[in-house]
Amino acid sequence: xxxxxxxxxxxxxxxxxxxGALQRYTVHGVTDDMSIxxxxxxxxxxxxxxxxxxxxxxxxxxxxxxxxxxxxxNGVAHGPKSQCTTCELRMREFRxxxxxxxxxxxxxxxxxxxxxxxIKDLVVDRTAFDRIIAAGGYVTVNAxxxxxxxxxxxxxxxxxxxxxxxxxxGCAACVAACPNASASLFTAAKIAQFTHLPQGAPERARRAxxxxxxxxxxxxxxxxxxxxxxxxxxKGISISNIAVMRREFAKALLGGG
Amino acid sequence: xxxxxxxxxxxxxxxxxxxxSRWTRHLEQVSxxxxxxxxxxxxxxxxxxxxxxxxxxTLAELGYNVLSFCIQDSPRRAxxxxxxxxxxxxxxxxxxxxxxxRLFYDTIKGGDFRSRExxxxxxxxxxxxxxxxxxxxxxxxxxxxxGTLANRSFGGAQVxxxxxxxxxxxxxxxxxxxxxxxxxxxxxxxxxxxxxEMLDLVVVDGKARGIVCRDLVTGQIERYAGDAVVLATGxxxxxxxLSTNAVNSNATAVLRxxxxxxxxxxxxxxxIHPTCIPQAGDYQSKLTLMSESLRNDGRVWVPARPGxxxxxxEIPEAxxxxxxxxxxxxxxxxxxxxxxxxxxxxxxxxxxxxxxTGYATYLDFAEAIARQGENVIRDRYGxxxxxxxxxxxxxxxxxxxxxxxxxxYTMGGLWVDYNLMSTIPGLHVLGExxxxxxxxxxxxxxxxxQGLADGYFxxxxxxxxxxxxxxxxxxxxxxxxxxxxxxxxSGRLAKLLGTNxxxxxxxxxxxxxxxxxxxxxxxxxxxxxxxxIREIQALRAEFWENVKVTGSTGNxxxxxxMAGRVADYLELGELMARDALERRESCGGHFREEYQTPEGExxxxxxxxxxxxAWEHLGDTVAPARHQEALDFEFVTPSTRSYK
Lengths: 257, 644
Description:
With about 260 residues, chain A is α+β, with helices and mostly antiparallel strands. Chain A folds into two domains: about 5-110, Ubiquitin-like (UB roll); about 125-255, Alpha-helical ferredoxin (Fumarate Reductase Iron-sulfur Protein, Chain B, domain 2, Orthogonal Bundle). Chain A has helices spanning about 35-50, 125-135, 155-165, 175, 185-195, 205-215, 230, 240-255; strands spanning about 5-15, 20-30, 70-75, 75, 100, 105-110, 120, 125. By secondary structure, chain B is α/β, with parallel strands linked by helices. Among the domains of chain B are: about 275-405, Succinate dehydrogenase/fumarate reductase flavoprotein, catalytic domain (Flavocytochrome C3, Chain A, domain 1, Alpha-Beta Complex), CATH 3.90.700.10; about 490-630, Fumarate reductase/succinate dehydrogenase flavoprotein-like, C-terminal domain (Methane Monooxygenase Hydroxylase, Chain G, domain 1, Up-down Bundle), CATH 1.20.58.100. Chain B is built from 17 helices and 21 strands. Chain B has helices at about 20-30, 35-40, 50-60, 100-110, 115-135, 170-185, 250-260, 325, 335-350, 365-370, 375-390, 445-470, 480-500, 505-520, 525-545, 560-580, 605-610; strands at about 40-45, 65-70, 85-90, 160-165, 190-195, 195-205, 205-215, 220-225, 230, 265, 270-275, 300-305, 320, 360-365, 400-410, 415, 425-430, 505, 545-550, 610-615, 625-630. In chain B, helix 4 crosses helix 5 (about 115-135) and helix 5 (about 115-135) packs across helix 12. Chain B is globular, with a radius of gyration of 24 Å. The model of chain B has no long low-confidence stretch (mean pLDDT about 95). Chains A and B meet through helix 1, helix 2 and helix 3 of A and helix 3, helix 5, helix 6, helix 11 and helix 12 of B.
């Protein structure tokens, strides 16, 4: 298979509260099996060799599980392939795409949302998510106080449903895709995990109230059922979790369990 | 022996007496710190993976003030998140004869009799408590229809004792741990410092009293003081450049502690994992693991005839070599990792390797799918199969996977005693960053077990013994030792930025990785190791003359971060080669070509090498000193490992 050449439009911004702009770069010799982050690695090697500032982007595991990476690629959070993180996106997905001057064109931007200030170029600050979890995304149980594991029976469908919700990697693509910059899918996934499990029951009302209040306090918008979050979620977290969250929140407000 | 002085004698401080009551009696004997005094103590915990996250959360639950640091933007992203297959525990839920003794024995045998009996037995005892704790946290482990927990088998064991959450066990355990940590952040007992990289340890009056960090967002150099330091910064497989580890995984914190006086134990003990997606090109930034759990259902094979380039479906059964089943009939595809990896290397060397490069073997699920149905296989490994397809473009439901070994885990690490304290008083080391429990080879599903055992159950009980028995005068960050450490850190960063040479950081890292993989990898010989030491020294010298690092220190600068890590790897790589050269035997993952049976199996030298090698830094221009901690086997007899 022949190699590809790309014309990249990449968001460059030196720091928070500074102006930014899209800048154009060219990369040749791209193979099908390269990931888009390896393409940026290659571009950065070229930029460093020329004494220019490399493009800042963050990534870590590069196998789709840590949730560190996240780019808006051609207008879509994590790019064109469904249920695929940015780091797992291979360049073969771009064959046959839009061209400019004979080069395949890709536009790369950071997550954009008020609660996620840009640190540099494509790197944003997502610590708001940590504060939402700190407000109640756990079961209160000190080390050493647990009982025998198999004394607690959990039906397989409940355990599976909890696992489906717990698969969230906290990448925040849901926020980036939402027209309201809502963090509902992220928050709901954690609430739903514990709603499906008996371990979550004692703190159910408190958890729903506090996590939703924290989500609002961080400045995320409301959910208005666009469904963009589910569409871009690399782990296929279902929007039905948001219904669970609303029910839990309403019940908690009314003082129910 | 006093806890105030450096433990240069390598006193393991292991309890004596009957093995199965050592930990219990130790708990009865260690000193306690009263609740009122815990509130006056500050513990610095570096790293938020399973070991560090569990330690920070649990120490805070006990009432200590905790400062928690991670290089990621959130503690939830520490590399423990990527562990796939599972976590071992001696619960014997399957009624297949498992016990604490068997888990202990499998682990010490799997490590080729190069670990401490006391430590390994404690790990096996605590394994059951870990599962209880994680279930209580709401970790959604796989379950049977009756509601009980499910298990699967892993390499090196003949029982089914591995607990799992699909192929994302590490993620789920870490999120449970992260939840507990964030609960303590909410309660004000843990102060969380994300996006911080520890660049030095501060030692005052011979004791670890603080750290110097760089804020990776602002570039500010910061000082933090405490009464003890807990290091849980993971392993150093990225010294090979290509590994299954995350791209930010690094050895800087452990190497800085080594240079401050902590002994480094068995640095050459690295694990090359047998089932990874083979390398496809030079652009590659990492290798992706395919969980060992796949070997439960997948059969490993190569063409029986060297040079057979037919596609796999055209090779009839009779012309395939299921080499692990052939050579090891009792364990078959479930032999330990070091053995499976070495046999894959032999197959490639014999010309039987498959794929474009010839450096791959097949992992075939056709028979398992025919026997159990595609749905069963999808339920067990669905996410791994889709990951494989995303990376290679091939569908493993219909064609065998291609796999090859890749650096994955480092058994070596900073030397610690039974209380997990290093040779520097007050510096405790947990999880993959220490060397303690896996000997020369780690069994699958044991890393998560060790990280959580260290964090939830060991350090919370042992750190008090240190704090209660040493004199700790108040130390502020204005102390001259902090100023000196910060000056060194700043000088180093300035030197990296000021060199302004011609060769990029990544290029140096790549070159180092080639040396390590070819000469300090799966198969090591004396002349290759000697060459490696010379080549690494030359590369390191060139690095400090010719590296090109862009930008400045005062902002987010990934190039500068990587430069510091590669500089440290250029020192650690040499230490690994030295350790491999001096250990004139083959054991576990350390395979010396000079010491093997005619069939290519490892030959240990128990008379000469039943010890831990612990290296002491003596200065940048002097070779490090090798010390020994003898390993006593009172309860098991080291035997030749046989999985046949």
